[in-house]
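Table S5 (text form). Sequence records supplied for joint modeling of the three-component complex.
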Amino acid sequence: MPELPEVETTKRAIAVFEGQVLKKIEVHNPNLRWAVDCKTIKTINEAKILSITRRAKYILIQLKNYCLIIHLGMTGTMRILPIESNATRKHDHVVFYFAKHKLIFNDARRFGSLHITKSPSNHFLLSALGPEPNQSDFNADFLYQKIKTSNTHTKSFLMNQKNVVGIGNIYACEILFAAGISPRRKIKYLTKKDCRAVVDQTHRIINLAIEKGGTTLQDFYAPDGNKGYFKIELNVYGREHQECRNCQNPIKRIIQNQRSTFFCKKCQN
DNA sequence: ATCTACTCCTGATTGC
DNA sequence: TGCAATCAGGAGTAGA
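The corresponding C-alpha cell record, covering 269 residues in total, follows.
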C-alpha cells in the first residue's frame, strides 16, 4: 500500500522519462476509481514530457498541453519494461509507450486513478490539499492555528488531506507514538508544544521513510522483486499485544473512523 | 462548515 | 483440501 514515501520513490523512478517523448497511452481497463477519460487519452501521441512531479500522493506528468494525474490507491504500482518485453501481469490497466521502454500501471484493487487535465492546479483532486508533511509550511504555528476550528481527534485530523497531505493510517499511528500523543485526544486541546512535537516527528518519520523507500527503487526495473516497502521499523502499527519498545506494556488496538489505530496507553497521553 | 459512516475492490488470511 | 467469511485501507461522497 503506497503511502507518500512510496509515491515519492515511484515518482523518482519514473522521472527517467522526463524529456522523453510519450508515443501513446493504451488503456486496457478504464474502470479505475474514476473512469479514465479514454477519449482525451487517445489524442496523446508523440508528446514530450516536460516534467514528472509529486503533489501529496498524486504523480503529475506534465505534457505540453495536458497534465496526467496518477494516484496509486492501495495497490497501484508502476513498472518499467523494455519495449520488446511481453511480460504482462494480471491487473495491468494502463501502458505508456516510449521509444525504448514502456511504463505500466498495475492496480489489483483499482482504488487508483488516472486523470487527464489542462489545468492541474484547478483540478478537484488537487485544489483543496493541505501542505506537504515534510515542507516548512507545515510547522507548529500553522498546526496550532489549524487545530482550533477542528472538533475531531488527533489521528483523524492528521489523516485528513485538507490539513496535511500524505499521512495514511500507518504513519498517523507512528507519528503520534513518536510524539507521545494519544490518538484519542481531541486535536484542539493540543498545546503549542504538542504541535511542535507532532510536526517534528512528522518531518523526521516521513523523511526517514522517503530515504528508506529509495531502497525499493530497483523494484521498478526488476519486475519480479515486488517487495521492499515499509522497511522502516514500525513501533506500533500492526503490533497489537506486542510489547511497547519503550515501556514494555502491550500495544493496544482500537477502531477509529472504521480504521485500526495502534498505540501505547502509557507512552501516549 | 464539519464530522462520521459508507463505499469502491481483490488478495491474503482465517475458520469450519 | 476447499469454500466462505473476514479484513485491509485512500479518500470522495452523502447525510447528519
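Note: Residues 33, 73-75, 91, 107-111, 149-152, 156, 257-258 of chain A lie near DNA strand B (CB under 10 Å from a C1').
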